[in-house]
TrEMBL record:
<dbReference type="InterPro" id="IPR052897">
    <property type="entry name" value="Sec-Metab_Biosynth_Hydrolase"/>
</dbReference>
<feature type="domain" description="AB hydrolase-1">
    <location>
        <begin position="7"/>
        <end position="227"/>
    </location>
</feature>
<dbReference type="InterPro" id="IPR029058">
    <property type="entry name" value="AB_hydrolase_fold"/>
</dbReference>
<dbReference type="GO" id="GO:0003824">
    <property type="term" value="F:catalytic activity"/>
</dbReference>
<protein>
    <submittedName>
        <fullName>Pimeloyl-ACP methyl ester carboxylesterase</fullName>
    </submittedName>
</protein>
<dbReference type="InterPro" id="IPR000073">
    <property type="entry name" value="AB_hydrolase_1"/>
</dbReference>
<dbReference type="Pfam" id="PF12697">
    <property type="entry name" value="Abhydrolase_6"/>
</dbReference>
Amino acid sequence: MSETPTIVLVHGAFADGASWAPVTLRLLDQGYKVLVPPVFNRSLSGDSAYIKSFVEQIDGPVILAGHSYGGAVITVAGVADNVVGLVYVSGYALEEGESLGQLQGGFPDSELAANLAYSPYPIESGEPGTDVSVNIDAFPAVFAAGVNTDKAKVLAVSQRPLSAIAFGEPASVAAWKTKPGWGIVSSADRTINPDVERFGYTRAGLRKVIEIDAPHLVMQTHSAEVATFITDAIAELG
């Protein structure tokens, strides 16, 4: 590839762009162009449309890396013409027509399921929506296991909820059918059953899958390995 792709890092539910911070810094220090857009966590279709639009305004090729729910987002947004590769990090590689709930439903629940909180949010027309978040007390152990205790406390109270709508909304397309992909399984994940990650990656026929003995926020605890995995994927593109 004559032009080095811009790396777009897509965060997941119950987090924001800061969840990628250690990886972002490593990639910037290596001279890569990196962008970390917000994901609003309102719906899979809306979030994917936003990221796709964001990507399409970048000059040149783009490699998308999605963490957790961000994996579902890049599965749909990755059909943008200038996307040249997909990197899943503890993520959902959905099939076309499949929802998060359907993919998860085929496997035993992780610890997250018993530690969720639900709250209404207003919608201008119609019934209120429902926001889903991680119980603050459980957040450090379940979602931010392995992360510095003080940082985990901050992440817990600044988490970005996910609309319940997103769990049941099917993916309109699966970009991995036409774009090369790579995947990281967090084998000590307590937020997503690691078998969900393994199954999705195998079904998608990703070029390379590695397992790291890491928690869900592997970008925080193993930033060097994640950054290297992304840059290795770029190298494979030639």
